[in-house]
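ARCHIVE CARD
CATEGORY: sequence design from structure
SOURCE FIELD: tokenized fold
FIELD CONTENT:
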């Protein structure tokens, strides 16, 4: 899509809480500097909405999200969570895409982080995140026994349970998304391989089914090499040879944990963007949370928000602008003169963004 004739895009902005708005505001200024046909919509959500409307997620905010092309989300510590849940489960954004790409100049615990460039795709709606938990007595009468110890569940009382759910539909759509992403990355010069990590040896019915579906689907993608390690072996691979990984797909819980681990390899959560994609909608948010310990100090690293913004621009069809934004950020890190405290520098959030603006 050429930017000259592109129709205007509407993007809902939800800044979130604590330090998150301090990263969002200068990021929007950087994107505005690119001169794109984007209208930012700012419906009231969270504490402000509660004060004005008696609810943290009023109907006006939901309607704005539904009418927008996408949503740009800061991070929430509670008051904005209803909006986040709607963006996730209400809009069925089933694929959480978490890139982990090393930028020269960033702090990494690896001796040689150069070239680490992988993407974790996390199934975003199912698994233990259905929230099916309770007292084990609630399962009494089902006649359930441990598959390993053969003891009845009543032997474990008092105890708690949590139910893991992986549907065929949910697994198939995130697997298809991941195969397609691997194929797309191959065209961009990446390895174009897919790793599907589960605990199929201990959970043959649930995780085993996820792996089985991946193996079956691989017949449709003979150009995408597929490996299916056990999740603990994958954790070892992620730490010892991340350079060999390209696209990785996992059920929800593993993806949540391992994507944060991958972020640590390339410089920390301050550099970790994410995009959550559904069939007809997507939202974008940094992965680092609200950072309440530094709220109000103006030192939050905006890189994750900026990179999430680049993913947003790419989704909207503004690929050249997304690349300009990424390259400007990379140039600041490569120069090594301006960095935020988490990266060993002393620059404020605004000063760091000003350095990026100069590169633009």
């Amino acid at each position: 899509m050429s930017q000259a004739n592109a129709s205007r895009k509407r993007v809902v902005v939800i800044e979130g809480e604590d330090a998150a708005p301090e990263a969002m505001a200068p990021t929007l200024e950087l994107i505005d500097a690119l001169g794109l046909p984007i209208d930012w919509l700012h419906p009231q959500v969270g504490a402000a909405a509660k004060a004005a409307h008696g609810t943290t997620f009023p109907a006006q905010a939901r309607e704005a999200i539904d009418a927008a092309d996408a949503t740009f989300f800061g991070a929430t510590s509670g008051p904005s969570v209803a909006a986040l849940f709607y963006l996730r489960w209400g809009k069925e954004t089933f694929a959480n895409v978490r890139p982990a790409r090393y930028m020269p100049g960033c702090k990494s615990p690896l001796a040689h982080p150069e070239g680490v460039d992988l993407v974790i795709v996390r199934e975003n709606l199912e698994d233990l995140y259905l929230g099916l938990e309770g007292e084990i007595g609630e399962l009494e009468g089902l006649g359930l026994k441990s598959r390993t110890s053969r003891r009845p569940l009543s032997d474990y009382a008092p105890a708690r349970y949590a139910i893991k759910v992986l549907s065929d539909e949910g697994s198939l759509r995130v697997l298809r998304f991941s195969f397609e992403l691997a194929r797309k990355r191959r065209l961009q010069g990446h390895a174009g391989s897919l790793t599907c990590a589960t605990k199929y040896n201990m959970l043959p019915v649930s995780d085993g089914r996820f792996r089985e579906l991946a193996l079956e689907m691989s017949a449709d993608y003979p150009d995408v090499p597929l490996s299916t390690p056990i999740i603990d072996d994958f954790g070892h691979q992620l730490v010892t040879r991340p350079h060999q990984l390209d696209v990785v797909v996992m059920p929800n819980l593993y993806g949540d944990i391992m994507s944060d681990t991958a972020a640590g390899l390339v410089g920390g959560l301050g550099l970790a963007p994410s995009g959550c994609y559904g069939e007809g909608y997507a939202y974008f948010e940094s992965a680092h949370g609200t950072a309440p310990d530094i709220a109000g100090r103006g030192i939050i690293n905006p890189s994750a928000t900026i990179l999430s913004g680049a993913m947003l621009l790419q989704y909207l069809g503004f690929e050249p602008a997304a690349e300009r934004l990424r390259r400007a950020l990379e140039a600041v890190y490569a120069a090594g003169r301006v960095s935020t405290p988490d990266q060993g520098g002393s620059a404020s959030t605004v000063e760091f963004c000003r350095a990026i603006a100069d590169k633009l």
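CARD ANNOTATION: Residues 1-5 have pLDDT under 50 and may be disordered. The longest helix spans residues 168-187.
SHELF: design records, drawer C
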